[in-house]
Amino acid sequence: MLPEKYSLLLKELSKKIPPKRLVTDPLKTLAYGTDASFYRLIPKIVVQAHSEKEVIETLKITGKMKIPVTFRASGTSLSGQAITDSVLIVATHSWNNYTILDGGNKIQLQPGIVGARANIFLSPYAKKIGPDPASINSARIGGIAANNASGMCCGTSQNSYNTIADIRIILYDGSILDTSDPYSIEQFKKEHSDIIQNIIKIRDNITSDSLLYERIKRKFKIKNTTGYSLNAFVDYKDPIDILKHLMIGSEGTLGFISHITYHTVTDFKYKACALLIYTTIEQACEAVPLLRESPVSAVELLDRDSIRSVENDPDAPEYFKSLPETVGVLLVDIQANNKEEIQEKESIIRKSVNSIPILQPYKFTSDPKEYNFNWKARKGLLASVGGLRKKGTTCLIEDVAFPVPRLAEACTALKKLFKKYKYQDAVLFGHALEGNLHLVFSQDFSDPKEVKRYADLMDELAVIVVDQFDGSLKAEHGTGRNMAPFVEKEWGEAAYKLMVQIKNTFDPFKLINPGVIINPNPQIHLENLKPLPEAHDLIDKCMECGFCESSCVSEGLTLSPRQRIVVSREIARLKKTGENTQRLKHFLEKSNYNVDETCATDGLCLLACPVGIDTGIFVKALRKEKIRSFEKKNARYIADHFQRTSSFLKTGLSVAYFGQKFLGNHLMSFLSSGIRKLSFDKIPLWNRAMPYPAKKIKLNAVHEGNELKVVYFPSCINRAMGKSEKYPTEEVSLTQKTEELLIRAGYTIIYPENLNSLCCGMPFSSKGYVQESEQKSMELKDALYKASDNGKYPILYDMSPCYYTSHSHFSHKDLPIYDPIKFMLEFVMPKLKVKNPKENATIFPICSVKKLGLMNDLMKLTQLCAKNVNIIQTNCCGFAGDRGFTYPELNQHGQRHLKEQIHTGCSEGYSTSRTCEIGMEEYSDINFKSIFYLIDEVTR
């Protein structure tokens, strides 16, 4: 039950915002209210705002009722600035508009756009946004700007503060200021003269205090996100310019950013990096000021513990293991628009650090494997500590900065600090050019003694950073709740009073993200600590960072991988404590649909997860636990009589085909929807892209007598499903098309024995039937061994998901199985001549292709067939095997941005999975089919 004032608020909000976007369900308020920090507050109401108007209405109503609000985008922030126990306004999925300005020199972005997507928009212009946080593939523009997030290459010169062109903000009273609009500025000055006058007053106070003025200038020569951006009062005179820059790094405490315009920066074509290894970390730090004066794009510092955490990586050089304990390593990166400039920059860099002795020779490399490993070693440090920590502990990432000339001293002091408080797993690394160091270590918050140890560490850390080195307690992760008690210590009384004045100016009723940055509670950093109970071996290492969310098809429909884990942990906690049986019952009931049934189990979250968690595998494990005895028997029967099951599927397709033919799409869709409703959604939903049954395959060898031989394994899906309504009348099913291509390339085609009984096992594993999946996988393996003469001939799969399943299930070193993309690229295309390449081709790389690392191969294959290639950027299509029929809302949600990605005039798209093609066709209005059809068309 909501408290009375929140019930009244909900009633008022419902008049302005659709009730389905006002979330009060306890499971979802917990899930949506969790961020990447180690704090936990659960919102009473989550408002999924879709427009400025809805944000304004929410602020007006909550303001009138004196109820606090907090703004939120991706929630990848680390310091507790995106959580609340009141009202959470989420601005994500309907905040994705952008405009390229001035030939790519500027870009206007709404807050819901993921940072990496902004760079994709800018890539045709060889430009990118300046900020490059490690979370750029997940963090959204609203959070990047509000936290002044920086990163490895942007330093301070290219962060949001220094690259902002204009901003549009909504203030506490619902009023709007757009700094790109002169009329908006004039109206704001008239209606909010009090804010303008306060800004001027603070500016004048700072400029008249020479000590404070110089202190502000000095403190922002290194990275600093502690408190508000007081440098705005030093760098600018005009109050609008000051206000614009003050919003950067304000962490949602001064207003809501509805869009921001950035000056873009050059995205260089050529890149190279080197590992400079010094005997001591002090020597490495001595090189940093010299490198700062040279043409480097990034310099990352790694200590011996950092190297140790990655030295067993298969791609790591052998010498990593023999480096001395005192070693200091600098990862130096250079970028340019041509190779000659790269060489010139390398020469300058070598000369700049030549005076400092180095442990061993170094080289700058542009080799993709070496270059990517060097950066993987740096970026993977979070995973190294996070993945090895004890269950139930939190992975903390503290973030400080020091004057660069004193970086070596600071490193020594921090190492002594960790040793004093026995943080044995602590790793030290950072952005050396800006004096920025990250401290990664594990912390147990379930034990009061451990909390006290952390409190003592933080107190002493503040003394070291502030009193000893006059550095920044937060360099790029934001103040949040984590460092709020220490803001005055770092800045001093005079500066802190000005910050309080800034907060009061923009939030006079203290309703906008209260408790963040400005907080009088000296213990707030030790309160509301997030519980991390053990829940399951597959997910216990999760740091709840949210990196997975931008990869998840169900995020925004039900839950993301992070949110599934949050809910599962809460269920585990409630079971253990027994404190609230009603809440536990509710979570168990709601989790069936939200955690289990709408998870596509596509595994794309694994690619983004710093600690290598595949939440899809976890959900499959949950499904396995819930299997009832009669369901187990049914699955076993289907596995043992698979040919009969396949025949039943073809019969069903035949019935649907005749229904579609005689009733038409509209009536067929209407009847199908009605039957599904009557069955309480138990009967799968027919859609207009449902294929016709495939023709029976003649299983004798095809085109016999050729020296070239291939074993062709048509998936059970393609053996059952033929072409769909939109295929040309004269077109044939995929199995026939594959035969045509292989014959044209000069192959004899061999089919495995008992083909119609064979399956890769994926339909079973996706539903949790592990034993049956393994049974079918091994049956297939044996049949392929026999058909290929014990691995003598290559084996072609015609669907990437089936290949991926076999690739995962059994060893194939002596069994040469091939994904359709790889086989066509390596074995077929070299034997065919492209006679009539298409002008344009649209392709969709399915989940398996991404997990197998075949994106480049798919691109190469398509470029052989078409002059221009358009790649659909959707993650998973949401069809997820058969879930597009049983949970069609998942497919619909996954395809919500598909049509806008289809270029004008495009009538066909290509993929490597029949079920995905069905889902894509349903929501694109174009015909999606196997890429084999494209190859056939251009080589015919």
TrEMBL record:
Belongs to the FAD-binding oxidoreductase/transferase type 4 family. Its cofactor is FAD. PROSITE patterns: 4FE4S_FER_2, FAD_PCMH. GO terms for molecular function: D-lactate dehydrogenase (cytochrome) activity; D-lactate dehydrogenase (NAD+) activity; FAD binding; iron-sulfur cluster binding. One of its GO terms (biological process) is lactate catabolic process. Pfam families: CCG (PF02754), FAD-oxidase_C (PF02913), FAD_binding_4 (PF01565), Fer4_8 (PF13183). It comes from the Bacteria. Residues 531-562 form the 4Fe-4S ferredoxin-type domain. It is an enzyme of class 1 (oxidoreductase). InterPro entries: 4Fe4S_Fe-S-bd, Cys_rich_dom, FAD-bd_oxidored_4_C, FAD-bd_PCMH, FAD-bd_PCMH-like_sf, FAD-bd_PCMH_sub1, FAD-bd_PCMH_sub2, FAD-linked_Oxase-like_C. Its EC number is 1.1.2.4. Keywords: FAD, Flavoprotein, Oxidoreductase, Transit peptide. This is D-lactate dehydrogenase (cytochrome). Residues 39-267 form the FAD-binding PCMH-type domain.
